Structure to design on (127 residues):
């Protein structure tokens, strides 16, 4: 990876995701260097990219996408309210579902807003 891109990722990914970057909650490269964001944020990033890549081919309805947000919320609340500590693979999975669901909801809402605005605009032009 080019050094400038690596510096950019290590600087901006934690800021964009609001990541705590705890090494014990992050995956590590073979040389022991932690990823620039934690396992959950890595999953969210992968889910966002998957949602963007597959949106035009296939995507779940908004209700299903909303349900995909629940595992991350439940896992986070469970860790907050109990001594339970989830592992990095669970964090990755819940982040992936959340990122995908959130992206689908965002793109669906943009589509709805576009259709509503287009329909509303047509009513302004009709005599």
């Amino acid at each position: 990876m080019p050094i400038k891109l690596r510096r950019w990722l290590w600087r901006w990914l934690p800021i964009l995701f609001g990541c705590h970057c705890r090494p014990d909650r992050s995956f590590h490269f073979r040389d022991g260097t932690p990823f620039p964001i934690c396992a959950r944020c890595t999953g969210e990033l992968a889910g966002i990219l998957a949602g963007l890549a597959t949106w035009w081919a296939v995507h779940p309805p908004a209700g299903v996408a909303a349900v995909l947000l629940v595992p991350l919320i439940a896992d986070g609340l469970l860790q907050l309210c109990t001594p339970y500590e989830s592992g990095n693979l669970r964090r990755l999975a819940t982040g992936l579902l959340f990122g995908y669901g959130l992206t689908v909801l965002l793109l669906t809402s943009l589509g709805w807003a576009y259709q509503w605005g287009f329909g509303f605009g047509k009513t302004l032009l009709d005599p």
Summary: Residues 39-125 form one domain. The chain has five helices and no strands.
